[in-house]
Amino acid sequence: MLIRKKMTKLVQLLIASVLLITPLFSQAEITVTDSQGNKQLAQYAQRIVVLNWDLAEQILELGVTPVGMPDIAGYKEWVSKPEVPAEVQDIGTRVEPNYEKIAALKPDVIIIASPQADLQSKLERIAPV
Fold it and tell me: Which residue of 59, 68, 107, 114 has the fewest CB atoms within a 10 Å radius of its CB?
């Protein structure tokens, strides 16, 4: 009985410590390196918009659900797996995305590929690219 009480106290202390320390780590900036160089993110990206089907397929395979991606109906015609979850929003086409829809999704980061490079400056007004 005494051991159980001590273990319970130890677990409670451990949980409290994790809850107190976690915000300290989440306040540090995150550096992401891509083909364009280094990007600074204020936190880990939770809300991701992806503008390229290849990248969307890779992200979905990793178990990450983007909040938005282009031409979902077209993607489903060409790609059977991985499936696009129902909650993913269609943001227009790969070459003409709907900037208002993207902004409304409040993405933490927007992931593009070289075919969308000419859209980068407009997209950077919404979120890091």
Answer: 114
Q: How far is CA 110 from CA 10, 33, 80, in A?
A: 42, 14, 24
Domains and CATH numbers, the chain: 45-123 (3.40.50.1980)
| pTM of the predicted protein model | 0.74
- Which DSSP symbol is given to 108? S
Q: Give the whole-angstrom CA distance, residue 107 versus residue 47.
A: 5
103 exposed, middle or buried (CB, 10 Å; 0-12, 13-18, 19+)?
A: middle
Buried b (16+ CB within 10 A) or exposed e, 61-79: eeeeebbbbbbbeebeeee
Q: Count CB neighbours of 125 within 10 A.
A: 9
Spacing of C-alpha 16 from chain mean position? 28
